[in-house]
Amino acid sequence: MEHSKRMKKGFEVLRKMGRLGTMMNQKELYPDLYDLSVGYLFGEIWTRPHLSIRDRELITLASNIALARPAGTHSHYRSARHLGFTREEIMEIIIHVGHYAGWPAIAHALIQYEEVLKQDAAQARGAKAGKKK
Description:
0% strand, mainly alpha, AhpD-like
């Protein structure tokens, strides 16, 4: 597939996930890596048939939780929420995966998810305060 078509498809997936501003460090540091991430990962892999974006987000989040990824999981919690996952669904993913990946995976996932909830709440409060001015 042509590069510009892949990029367009990738940006559409990122838009649906609420992540258009993601990976800007890649774009700044090494644009080829950014192009691969947007065009290939999101434009090709995430748009393959048979699984929805929601399905793929669930798989990605579960994989990151199981592998206790120190980076990347925060943005996938946000994407899951943007795609309509409820707090209960995310907690059930953590519980389910943790019983296969080990109890420390649950502890690590909870720390990361709690960080996201606190950061997002603080950001929402700041945005609300900014509108009042």
